[in-house]
Amino acid sequence: MQKSNLASIPTSIDLAQEWLVEYWAVELGVSRGRLAQAVGIVGPEVAKLRKYLKDGHRIAVRDDSDVVRLVARITLEKDGFAASVPYHPAKKGWIWELPLDYSKFGEVPVPLSEAKHYTVDDTVKLSMHMGGFVQFSRGGAKPIVSGYNPELAQINPDYSPVNS
């Protein structure tokens, strides 16, 4: 077997190497600015950067007795972002789908009788995509994989776009 003379892509990012920054920004699905920010926080090793970017940002609150409690996690997706609440110990939640008529803004709100009510017994995840697709799903041990199927022009609970 003949040995290749091609060098492998470095797994440590040197921000002065423009081609390397461009390569890893695309590979990790972030902007070059976000990549530089992450390097400043966790260092240049790609494995650490990948974990840091996957973990997302945590939102915490401090109560009156000075106890800090984690509330939510925001993660960047390839075409938007997701917010989840993995820290809620009950792992139960409600959500209401309420139709809104924006042409009647400022008038009497839509009655709750027109709302659809859903419950979940797992971590709840809200995903917002750049194309306008918004969904609630389970984000815990048994996540729901779903998405907008452009070929059928509909939301499919089992649809997973390639490279999602």
Termini gap? 36 Å
**How many helix segments?**
3
Shape: extended
List low-confidence stretches: 159-164
Oligomer: single chain
Largest sheet: 5 strands, antiparallel
- The overall pLDDT average reads 78
Radius of gyration: 21 Å
Helix and strand element order: HHHEEEEEEEEE
Strand residue percentage: 25-35%
What class do helices, strands and sheet pairing give?
alpha+beta
What portion of residues is helical? 10-25%
Instruction: Kindly state the number of beta strands.
Output: 9
Please characterize this protein's 3D structure.
The chain has 164 residues and is of the alpha+beta class. The protein has three helices and nine strands, in the order αααβββββββββ. It has helices at 18-28, 32-42, 46-55, and strands at 57-62, 68-77, 80-84, 93-97, 116-120, 124-129, 134-138, 147-149, 154-156. Strands 1-2-3-6-7 form a five-stranded antiparallel β-sheet, covered by helices on one side. A two-stranded antiparallel sheet has the order 4-5. A two-stranded antiparallel sheet has the order 8-9. A hairpin with a 2-residue loop joins strand 2 and strand 3. Helix 1 packs across helix 2 (32-42) and helix 2 packs across helix 3 (46-55).
